[in-house]
Design a protein that fits this description.
Elements: H1 7-16, E1 24-29, H2 35-47, E2 50-55, H3 65-70, H4 75-85, E3 90-92, H5 96-100, H6 119-122, H7 126-141, E4 145-149, H8 153-165, E5 171-175, H9 195-200, H10 202-215, H11 220-232, E6 237-246, E7 262-270, E8 273-280
Parallel strand pairs: 1-2, 1-4, 2-3, 4-5
Antiparallel strand pairs: 6-7, 7-8
Helix pairs in contact: 7-8, 10-11
The structure holds pantoate.
């Protein structure tokens, strides 16, 4: 499996069989692939005749240079993993200069408030960076479907809004969170954790699950207090936020409405590594 490193190569590869029947799927990734990514790839392969997997650690979505520096980069292992799934996958692994030239900066977008809460509030500029690279990838690949994991649920809703606002003729497909045996949501960042913390980080899903159980009978304030208390007992895992929000608008829950769907969203720090997760509450 030979990755394509440049835009021209990608273009000529994709245009060589334009007109042939079938659809094209895109799975955008930042590499350091794990079972969560592979589940997106499997779904894309089952729904399309061709699949592009992009591997690109996008500098403009990192608000913290240290975080970018330590983000795992494992291209050889990623290629081997993809090859074990299917030799037909088209891997696009451009360099930063190939996609950004000399201007490594984000465009500025407006997402009707979706980008102002949670990850948007705690990671300034993050979603402008994500939207910039997703717009570039959708423009270069022109997929019929693009696949994103629900672990980054806020990102998924923002990408849906982006595709809609910019009139990309693409279906944005959200795929379920894949978890480690202790419930920890799979993430490339998990490999930065020590084995002991990785085990104890099971508390994140355990607490989300308990919040879900409380949701039928308790109000948001009570549930938030419960979550804070749970992390108080685990000082090595520091809670950054827990919020209950409307699934569509991502506005924080004040008073439950029967016809709306809610999710609980969480971000924590463990050994300096930022982990996020979320759960459907109703
Ligand atoms: O979810 C990710 O891995 C990244 O945010 C994405 C969508 C590949 C953009 O860089």
């Amino acid at each position: 499996m030979k990755p394509i490193f440049d835009k021209k190569g990608l273009h000529s590869f994709l245009s060589s069989d334009k007109g042939k029947p079938g659809t094209l799927g895109l799975v955008p990734t930042m590499g350091a692939l794990h079972q969560g990514h592979l589940s997106l790839v499997q779904q894309a392969l089952s729904e399309n005749s061709k699949v592009v997997v992009s591997i690109f650690v996008n500098p403009t979505q990192f608000n913290n240079p240290e975080d970018l520096e330590k983000y795992p980069k494992t291209l050889e292992a990623d290629l081997a993993l993809l090859k074990s799934v299917s030799e037909e996958i088209i891997v696009f692994a451009p360099s930063v200069s190939e996609l950004y030239s000399l201007d490594i900066s984000s465009k500025s977008y407006s997402f009707n408030g979706l980008d102002k809460v949670m990850e948007g509030a705690f990671r300034e500029g993050h979603f402008n960076g994500v939207a910039t690279i997703v717009e570039i990838l959708l423009t270069l690949v022109r997929p019929d479907k693009a696949y994103f994991g629900e672990k980054d649920f806020q990102q998924l809703q923002i990408v849906r809004k982006l595709a809609d606002k910019l009139h990309f003729p693409v279906d944005i497909v959200g795929c379920p969170i894949v978890r480690e045996p202790n419930g920890l949501a799979m993430s490339s960042r998990n490999q930065l954790l020590s084995e002991s913390i990785r085990q104890r980080a099971g508390i994140i899903y355990k607490t989300l699950h308990a919040a879900k159980c409380m949701f039928g009978t308790e109000n948001a304030t009570k549930i938030i207090e419960y979550v804070k208390g749970a992390f108080h007992k685990e000082p090595d895992i520091e809670l950054e936020y827990f919020q209950i929000a409307d699934t569509e608008t991502l506005t924080p829950l004040k008073r439950k409405q029967e016809n709306l769907k809610y999710r609980g969203f969480i971000a924590v720090y463990a050994e300096g590594v930022r982990l996020i997760d979320n759960i459907a509450l109703n």
